[in-house]
Amino acid sequence: MGYETLDVAVDDRGIVQLRLNRPDKRNSLSAQMINDLTDFAVKATPRRDWRAIVLSGVGDVFCAGGDLGWMQAQIAADRATRMAEAKKLAMMLKALNELPQPLIGKVHGGAYGGGVGMCAVCDVVVSAEDVKFGLTETRLGLIPATIGPYVIARMGEGLARRVFMSARLFTALEARDLGLVAKVVPTADLDTAAEAEAFPYLSTAPGAVAAAKSLARKLGQGATDTMIDASIEALADTWETDEAREGIAAFFEKRTAPWVRK
Description:
By secondary structure, this protein is of the alpha/beta class.
C-alpha cells in the first residue's frame, strides 16, 4: 500500500505497522491523511491474514490533532462543504473504530485534539511515560466534536468531563487513570510493550477475534450512528462561530485570542 501521509508495513506474521507520516506537521490530520486512513481501513477490513494493527506516528509526536490549515478552510467554506468535510473525518474515525483486527495504539511525544480521538478508537493504547495529552480544541474556539463519541465511550462521561472542555494538558499517568491508556512504559520499552499487546493475537482465530470485537461494540453501544451524526453537525456548527474564526486567526497571526486571561 502506498500512501502520501501513511507508512504501512506488514511482517511475515501478519502484524501491521500503520504509521502516521507527516512528521513536519506533527502528524496532524489533513484532508489527505483523513482520506488515506479511510482507504487503509476499507482495504484492511477483509484481510483475515492481518492479525493485529499497531498505530503509531513518525517523528517527534504521535498526532497533533486536526490540521489547522484544513480547519481554516472549513471556516471559509459554505455549510454544505463544512458538513461534507466533517462527515469525512467522522467516517474515518468510524472506519478505524470498526476495523475487525485489533488496533493497538503506540503513542509517543504527544497526542492532542484529534490525536486523543485516534487513541480512543484503538482497542488498547500503550504510551511512553513522557507523553502529553490534551483535548485542546476550546483554546481555538472549537470543540472535540467528531472524536467526542469515542472519547466518551472510552472514558465515560464523568471522567471525560475532567479534560473534555478545559483544554489542559495531562500526563500519560492521568490518561491511564481516565481509561484512555492501558499501559505507561519508559520510551525505550514502547516497541516491546506494543509487541506484547499484538503477540497474543497470533494464537487466536481471526474470524473469532473480529466477531468478538463486533459484539463488544454492540454490547457497549458506545459510538452510535445517532451520536456520530450529531457530532458531524456540531463540528460544522462550531466552524461557523465567531470564536472559531477568531481563535484560528489568532493562532496563524501568532497573537493571543481575546478570551485568554492571565
